[in-house]
Structure formats: C-alpha cells, structure tokens
Amino acid sequence: MINLSPFSFLSSIAKTEATDINNPINKTKIFLQQQISVSLLNLYRAYTYNLSIGCNQKPLSIVRNLITTTQKIFNQRKKILFYPDFPYRKATLYQICLFLGYDVTNNSKEKFDLVIKWQRYKTFFSEEPILSQLSKQNFDVINFHCKDVSKSLTNQLFDEAFGYSITVNPLTYTGKCVIKSNLNAQHDGRIISCPTDKIESEVVYQKLVENEIEEEKIIEYRVPVFRQKFLVCIYISKK
Question: What pLDDT shows up at residue 75?
Fold first, then answer.
C-alpha cells in the first residue's frame, strides 16, 4: 500500500534515484523530482539526514537538532556544483554536504562556490567541455584531471605510493583473497580461496584485509584528499 500523506510522499520522492526507472511509480516520483526546486529538495534532505544521525526521538533533542541544522544552512550559504551528474543520495560526499548545510546543484548556470567533477558509476571519464571552460575561468575544479578510477590503476598507484602491493597472483597465492570487477561501483566483490586454476578477465585480485572488530561489526577507513589535505574517516557499521 502506498502512503499518500504529504510528508511520506515527499520523503519517498526525495529518496528515489534517477536510475530507479523500472517501476512505474518511481517514474512518477522522478518526474515530480524534476518539478521540485533542487534547493528545496536539498533543504528537505539536509533536515532529514541531520535528524537521522544527530538526535534521539525525544522532542527536545529533535528541536535542538532542527535549530542546529538551520544555523548551519543559513550561516554557510555555500553552493557546490557537481557536474555533469548529481551525486547519489547515499554518496558520502553528498551526505557531508547535507551535514554541513551546503546547497548542491548540477546546473552550471547557477551561482556556486565550488566545482566537483562527478560522473556516476563510470570508470573512464571523457572530457566535459563545461568543466574545461570553468577551469579556464580560474575555477578550481576538484577531480578535473581524474580520467581513470579502475581498480587496476588504483593498484598500480598504491604500489608506487606505499612501496608494497595489495594485489595477489591467484595462481600462486595461498590463502583467501578478494576478487572484484576492474570497473567502478559494481559492488560485486567476493572472497575466494587460492590458489585457483585460472585467472578471470576484467577483474582484480586483492589481499583480504580482516576488518571485523566485533561479531557482525566491521570498521572501514576512508581517506579523501582535498588540495593536499588528508582527512581520515572511520566508519563502524553492521555487516
């Protein structure tokens, strides 16, 4: 049954992704998304995201969270251009923007304070004329020179940076390793036992890093780099 109350329906619209096109209901939601101001949609998402992570269900805690979120939104008044694609709702960088109260757009004709090259689900990136033009206008376009995020190139750069490898040869390695697609955002990684009798194509084989800290709990380290600054993010989550 579909909940047609205004709040619930707006929530379902905000949570729908542009890739969810197989369901007729989702097609309607995506159409309605396009009729809603992006700023309004981000505003709604900013409040709901901050409420989901920053308070319990007690009324006073909710009020405090709403006040804090409002202060962040109106104090920051920053807008980030993601181009050519709008970021996935659950993308970490987008959630950071929501937490900080930043507005987000992928309309290059709007006024913005920062530009981020963002192409969803792609591994090899083509040149974007609009980003090239913005770069020539002295905008600092984050990820502008990024053209390849394949696992094989990542492995190569890791080797060069750290002086040791995270890859294994599955024909000779003994133990467990992770096999995953060379392409970005496939989420198809699985653990296998080595040695194997063959090497699959279009995949990489990497060392298995044991990151379980408690039963059903894992820890992840993410290290985004912005203008030579390293930010270590630690995630603890359930399997």
Answer: 82
Does residue 118 surpass a pLDDT of 80?
yes
Residue 59, both tokens: 């009324």
CB-CB contact of 179 with 201 (8 Å): no
Average pLDDT of 23-52? 69
Distance from C-alpha of 2 to C-alpha of 151, rounded to nearest angstrom: 41
Query: pTM of the entire structure?
Result: 0.74
Instruction: Give the pair of three-digit tokens for residue 202.
Output: 């279009």
CB neighbours of residue 149 within 10 Å: 16
79, β-bridge pairs:
103
For residue range 135-167, list pLDDT tens digits in order: 999 888 999 999 999 999 999 999 999 999 999
Bridge-based pairing state of the strands 217-222 and 225-226: unpaired
Cis previous bond, 59, omega within 30 = no
**Distance in angstroms (rounded) separating the CA atoms of residues 193 and 178:** 9
Please say if the pLDDT value at position 13 is more than 80: no
